[in-house]
Amino acid sequence: MVLRGITVALAAAGQPPGAGGTAELTPRQRRMARRQKQHAKQRELRQQEQPARLEREQAVEQQRAAAAEELQQLHVQLLQQQPDLPLNCPHFASCSGCDLQSGLAAPPLLASATRFFAERCAYPGFRLAAGPAQQWRRRARLAVRRGDDGEAVVGLFSEGSHDAVDIPDCVAHHPAINAAVSLLREALTACGVEPYHEASGKGELRYLQLTVVQPPAPAGSQDGGQLGAGGAAAAGGTAAAAPAQVQLVLVWNAAAGEVGDAADERLSALSDWLWQRQQHGEQQPGSLLHSIWANFQPAATNTILGEEWRLLRGAEVAWARLGGVDICYGPGSFMQANFGAMDAALAAIQAHVPAGATVADLHAGVGTIGLSLAATRAPRWVRFVEINGQGEPPFQQSAERLRASAAGAPPLEYLVGAAGSQPGRWCKGAEVVVLDPPRKGCEPALLRYLCSDGAAAAGVRRVLYLSCGLPALQRDAAALLDSGRWRLAHAEAFLFFPGADHLETLCVFDKIE
Ligand SMILES: C[S@@+](CC[C@H](N)C(=O)[O-])C[C@H]1O[C@@H](n2cnc3c(N)ncnc32)[C@H](O)[C@@H]1O
Question: Any idea which UniProt keywords this protein has (predicted)?
Fold first, then answer.
């Protein structure tokens, strides 16, 4: 339209377009002509630049492809260096629980981590310690769903869906977990319990949480169970003859106060049935279940556990022997699923804490890391900080047991708060600071504090960072190193989830004096 308007104006003046007749144009037409000229110039420039831009884009793409190729080559090298660790699980094709079928001791992430530590942190000695690939899982959360045939399906979701698949022979599970699931399937039919139906949101039983407990409890304890990383070895030899037990949580599709008589009856009937039928069998005397809990989750969300709990049968707490100390857990406590790998990580952490140091454990949970240091490194004191107050009651029981032990305990202080809320207070006087944050890494305020003069003034000399999320660790480690106040003294990884492309990474940062 614009072009046509200008052409008409020039033609009316008796001049061909472009013959210098702009004097006769209206101001609006002159503006339009100027704009048109500018656009033409820009188009021309763009066309001239296009080859250069394409070249730049190609170069970036080539660099990216070369880096990916290098990473792949490094991965192949690492696969050759690491022991061959196959999964051998009959459910691999249908279940989403594992990413890898072979080469479990060198997941692809190991190549990224190795490159990061070598190139970004000038630390070429990064290694992964792998444990067994089978029977390592001592805590499992499984969906209970009504299958197409109306029967219960108890397992994990298939890749990218909410369709649960049965995994009765899962090789990652401790055998006691598979035994408890098999018993529960019988119980569901016998008691007429309705599995949860994903589409309608109806049904009673949504999920199970199963945690392996190794009895018996140490002499004199009233709790009735000890979870153990290595069975007899981890439990100081006392648990050699006892078969493992399971702390079973039934996640019920209702609020605790709204269960209703009929459903309440079925919940009782289910726990009674399970409790009566739980014998291991003639080959292995003793009972399979340590305790049965109900957890109430009425919300139709992906969050597995609700807020409300009810103990239906058995002992309230269980104990684990981890890192040389008894750790008390409730059913809602955070705990690592792979006790063997956690034990290895705790041993490495202990090796990097000088005897007699003062310690702040800033993502303490029930206090596993700090208590393990309290039991083995004779610290002058240990301060525990945790955002979720539910960690404190089990922590206090563990602390009490440690104080009552022959070795005794140093002063132990448990504070509830966010690690980044008052880092100066949490770290004051602590020579060693332990960070074990969730996958998203450290809070920015905590990192800023550690990268400032404040941390040095507070007396922090060493930071131990146990990470379950490599991208966040890379970001946080880069910030610490770039601050010019810290150097990476050590880094190693542990295989907490054999079969997954996952690493648990321990970094030791030392203050540059
Ligand atoms: C990976 S778990 C580690 C727990 C404990 N160290 C253990 O080994 O059992 C991370 C813990 O950090 C806690 N947490 C998450 N965000 C936090 C924050 N901003 N400040 C302090 N603790 C936090 C979580 O509640 C959880 O207990």
Answer: Methyltransferase, S-adenosyl-L-methionine, Transferase
**What is the per-residue pLDDT across 464-482, written as a single tens digit (0 to 9) for each?**
999 999 999 999 999 999 9
Domain 139-322, CATH? 2.40.50.1070
Q: Residue 378 region, left (φ>0) first, then alpha (ψ -120 to 50), else beta?
A: left
Question: Minimal CA–CA distance to 266: which of 204, 202, 201?
Answer: 204
- Predicted confidence (pLDDT) per residue in 223-268, tens digit: 445 555 433 333 333 334 578 899 999 999 988 777 667 778 889 9
Domain ranges of the chain: 2-66, 96-132+338-511, 139-322
As for ligand 1, residues whose beta carbon falls within 6 Å of it are 334-335, 363-365, 368-369, 385-388, 391, 418-420, 436-438, 443, 468
Q: Please give the distance, rounded to the nearest whole angstrom, from the Cα atom of residue 505 to the centre of ligand 1.
A: 15
468 is catalytic: yes
- How many residues make up the chain in this entry? 513
| 260: alpha, beta or left? (left if phi > 0; alpha if psi -120 to 50) | left
Instruction: Using the mean position of ligand 1's atoms as its centre, give its distance from the Cα of residue 375 in Å.
Output: 20
Between the CA of 320 and the centroid of ligand 1 the distance, in Å, is: 18
162-175: pLDDT as tens digits: 889 999 999 999 99
* Reported pTM: 0.85
